[in-house]
């Protein structure tokens, strides 16, 4: 089987729904996720060193928007822009959303994705490697970070999410969490 067939793409119908959402809503949700993640992993962006001032274009190629991650920005580290918007950046990381999430969750090897062309890197590769190493070192689990973003509702949301996530992952093939479920079941 071709490696490309193993990386699922975001459903076109769901992408159409996202097109109808104002970018500001998507940006607010994702910015909250980044804020919670950096609060829980305070050294995440410190590990970037000189590359903390870099602007990273994160391009989920199967979604109708792109993300600009600017770790050093004081007024918002993440922006959501319509696809095709010209924006200064030092690096671009592009690929299907499933590949990008799989990288964050440690399910896919970045080198393998790059050489299979499921992942495209452009610009400052040293900055991209610094970001990858920082994320790998932090062992981020976006489902756990999202739960922490719920504050006191986390205790109510954790049990059903622990049951639903494995099902959704099996149905879609998209990595929505790190391989272990213990941290999710306990709400950490």
Structure explained in plain terms:
By secondary structure, this protein is an alpha+beta fold. The protein folds into two domains: 138 residues, SCP2 sterol-binding domain (Nonspecific Lipid-transfer Protein, Chain A), CATH 3.30.1050; 43 residues, no CATH class. Helix content is 48%, strand content 13%. The protein contains nine helices and five strands, in the order H-H-H-E-E-E-E-H-H-E-H-H-H-H. Strands 3-2-1-4-5 form a five-stranded mixed beta sheet. A hairpin with a 4-residue loop joins strand 1 and strand 2. Helix 3 packs across helix 7. It is globular.
How far apart lie the N and C ends?
A: 37 Å
CATH architecture of the largest domain: 2-Layer Sandwich
Helix content estimate? 40-55%
Shape: globular
Low-confidence stretches: none
CATH fold label of the largest domain: Nonspecific Lipid-transfer Protein, Chain A
CATH homologous superfamily heading of the largest domain: SCP2 sterol-binding domain
- SS-derived structural category: alpha+beta
The number of helical runs is 9
How many domains comprise the coordinates? 2
**N-to-C SSE series?**
HHHEEEEHHEHHHH
- Quick one: biggest sheet? 5 strands, mixed
**What's the pLDDT, averaged over the residues?**
88
